[in-house]
Design a protein that fits this description.
The structure is a single chain. The protein is built from 2 helices and 17 strands. The longest helix is centred in the N-terminal third of the chain and has 7 residues, at 39-45. Helix content is 5%, strand content 62%. The protein has a 17-stranded mixed sheet that branches. The protein is globular. By secondary structure, it is mainly β. Strand 14 (211-227) and strand 15 form a beta hairpin.
Length: 260
């Protein structure tokens, strides 16, 4: 169902019960979608420029395989739609809000859910160039029931288009303990295929024109290899601190001050 109204000359499009997908696979479902188009900026850009995007009741499934991640219902990764239009409009967005999100991630060994909690939407808010980011993401593993203890923190601020040289950002990411083997292609160490590799991390990102700084702490838990007799422990615990500095994400150097 599509509803169109106007607010201060800006058209506002509201859709209910959106389903998107290909073939007979599980579609992406969105209970409510609201888009506000900036009338004057759209005239200047000669194309639609969205100032507000609100999604509620988002349901989709991500599948991890040897080629990376794909959205169920969209075929392979190479069949994903061109998202340049979305990247073009992101710097103009003043409000992005996602609520009631439930994303199933089908890993190689088990399934986890990435969810939002009632009253804690994922948001990007701003008025002008600077945008603030607050994504309280909860990761629910099989057997956790309705536990909300595993929270991924993604906060900070940014301005501009991340594809351009004038992009600015200060972001913080805290990842709770996850099993890397579940989400990546086969990993081997010393010709031994890994069965489990628990991983958690904190990352601070600072981006300025021609200057990128990434500081991170990585904690490794139980790392097990697959043996004929059963899983064998390779590492009980490990930690790593690193710092990357450079003129871009591809041109720089990394320093490891601590490795245990």
């Amino acid at each position: 169902e599509l509803d169109v109204c106007s607010s201060d000359l800006d058209p506002v499009f509201s859709l209910d019960g959106v389903q998107v997908g290909q073939g007979g696979d599980e579609p992406v479902r969105i209970k409510e979608l609201r888009l506000r188009v900036d009338f004057f900026k759209s005239l200047l850009e000669r194309g639609p420029v969205f100032s507000e995007l609100e999604l509620a009741g988002v349901r989709l499934t991500l599948v991890a395989d040897d080629d990376g991640f794909r959205i169920k219902g969209f075929g392979g990764t190479g069949q994903m739609a061109d998202l340049n239009w979305l990247f073009d409009t992101v710097p103009h967005l003043e409000v992005v809000s996602l609520s009631d999100v439930d994303v199933a991630v089908e890993g190689r060994n088990n399934r986890v859910r990435i969810r939002s909690r009632d009253g804690e939407p994922w948001q990007i808010l701003g008025n002008g160039e600077r945008k603030s980011v607050l994504f309280p993401v909860y990761i629910v593993r099989e057997g956790d029931g309705n536990s909300w203890k595993n929270r991924l923190h993604f906060t900070g601020s940014y301005s501009g288009d991340f594809r351009s040289d004038d992009f600015l950002a200060k972001l913080y990411l805290n990842i709770p303990t996850l099993d890397l083997v579940n989400f990546l292609p086969d990993i081997s160490i010393a010709k031994q295929k890994l069965n489990t590799a628990d991983f958690s991390s904190e990352i601070w990102l600072d981006v300025k024109p021609h200057e990128v700084s990434v500081i991170g702490n990585i904690e490794l838990g139980s790392i097990l290899s697959q043996q004929a007799a059963g899983p064998q422990a390779l590492v009980d615990h490990g930690s790593l601190q690193f710092r990357y500095t450079g003129s871009s994400f591809t041109e720089g150097s990394i320093v490891i001050p601590s490795l245990k």
